[in-house]
Automatic annotation (TrEMBL):
The keyword Glycoprotein does not apply. It comes from the Bacteria. This is IclR family transcriptional regulator. Residues 91-274 form the IclR-ED domain.
Amino acid sequence: MAQIDDGSAERRARGRPRDWNDKTDQNRIKSLDRAMEVLETLSRLGGATLTDLSAACDQAPASVYRVLVTLESRGIVDFDAGFQTWHIGAGAFLIGSRFLRRTSLLERARPVLRSLMAATGETANLGVRRDGQVLFLSQVETHESIRAFFPPGTMSPMHASGIGKALLAQMPVEEAARVTAAEGLTRFTHHTLTRPDALSADLAMTRRRGYAIDNEEKTLGMRCIAAPIFDVHGEAVAGISVSGPSARIPDEIIPEIGAKVIEAAKEVTKGIGGQPAG
């Protein structure tokens, strides 16, 4: 029997309205926007009192409190009565973890991270670019007592991160300059590259050797060696790295670790169906 097309199939298939490109205020829910600002600020602070959070958001305490109570009912935030502080809750983690399931990157990278940690004896990390910074997605820690620690969800400036510089080095020079100019070249240690010309020279060297080095540029006494992961279009979409104390990663073994990191990045690239930039 022939079916009559009444347009319902199209309506069911649509996931956004016809004017979805319209990002003007008429399509924004201002109260929700303010609530998201509260959530993002709380995440950045890692925990805060109502007074401090209200000040950071420049919103009235009563308004922020209503947002927090609403989010608490969904498990998105938690309240520590003893310290009178609010924190990100388990519900936020569950929502974030569903983002990771959208791609096979994390699944494919996890065994490679374990192997890389075993091969180098140092902590292995996976990160992606997010809003001009590096967002760490996964980590396999070394068994050593002194080690680098980047829990999932940690953000780090690209110019002072091994993964960040590995990704910047794969961008067109103009794009990398725009990204770093927008974020600024903040100094964290006396090793941090805070001059655009110094960073540009470092990125050029990174491209030539295939891996980036964070030489105590974010934290004194810690080094990181990273290489890019490419998608099916040959675009750098993530980075994999090894990080640890400078005393255990002296200059003479950096090339050896760099080669292992490059191979690990190639393995993940292959696992997600990617191909290195040609």
